[in-house]
Amino acid sequence: MTEEVRRGAAVIPEAKQHQVAELAEKLGRMRSAVLSDYRGLSVAQLEELRASLREAGIDYLVLKNTLARRAGEQAGLSEFTPQLVGPTAIAISYEDISAPARLLIDYARANRRLEMVQGGIAEGQVLSPADVRQLADLPSREVLMARLLGVLEAPASQLVGLLDAPSRDLAGLLDAQAQALGGAAAA
């Protein structure tokens, strides 16, 4: 009899151990993950949701809570395991923190399933459903980068305008004087 069986822990079959290890690896390298309840979705709706998430580079996995808890513990994320209640699926993003939250919240709104999101985790912080909704309202990484570039570029543009103003004003003054002298010579 093995030590795990004597302590009352269930022995996991090798195939399931592989699933736990694979999920733990994904959780270890993720930027954010959102837990959702997929009950009430038809197969077509679930495939539509998966396709939209896949296009954004997000993995959407239907989980057995027991295996997900073990994977979370292996990845050092045991604090999010209390959110694993009922039928659960997880959307995992490896790049954009807000993408899974934004896409799942948009899908939930479009399909009138406002209680779809159960919680999540972003950069090691556990998120409540309300936190996930706030995360969904954040602009995408590309939009934030464009805004930052605009903020950084504004002072340089203003400096160029200030440095160019005296020469532009002098050129305008000389042009006005030439027109005034040309008009006086014609009279």
Helix-strand layout with pairing:
Blueprint: H1 3-6, H2 14-29, E1 32-36, H3 43-55, E2 58-63, H4 65-74, E3 88-93, H5 99-110, E4 117-122, E5 125-127, H6 129-136, H7 141-186
Antiparallel strand pairs: 1-3, 1-4, 2-3, 4-5
Helix pairs in contact: 2-4, 5-6
Verbal overview:
The protein has 187 residues and is of the alpha+beta class. The chain has helices at residues 3-6, 14-29, 43-55, 65-74, 99-110, 129-136, 141-186, and strands at residues 32-36, 58-63, 88-93, 117-122, 125-127. The protein has two domains: 3-138, 2-Layer Sandwich (Alpha-Beta Plaits); 139-187. A hairpin with a 2-residue loop joins β4 and β5 (125-127). The model is unreliable at 1-8 (pLDDT under 50).
Number of domains: 2
- The chain-level structural class is alpha+beta
Beta fraction:
5-15%
- Sequence stretches where pLDDT stays below 50 over 5 or more residues: 1-8
Cα(first) to Cα(last) distance is: 118 Å
Written as H for each helix and E for each strand, in order along the chain, the element string is HHEHEHEHEEHH
Rg for CA atoms: 29 Å
Question: What is the CATH topology classification name of the largest domain?
Answer: Alpha-Beta Plaits
Structure characteristics:
Alpha-Beta Plaits; five-stranded antiparallel sheet; disordered N terminus; 187 residues
Quick summary:
The protein is an alpha+beta fold. The chain has helices at 3-6, 14-29, 43-55, 65-74, 99-110, 129-136, 141-186, and strands at residues 32-36, 58-63, 88-93, 117-122, 125-127.
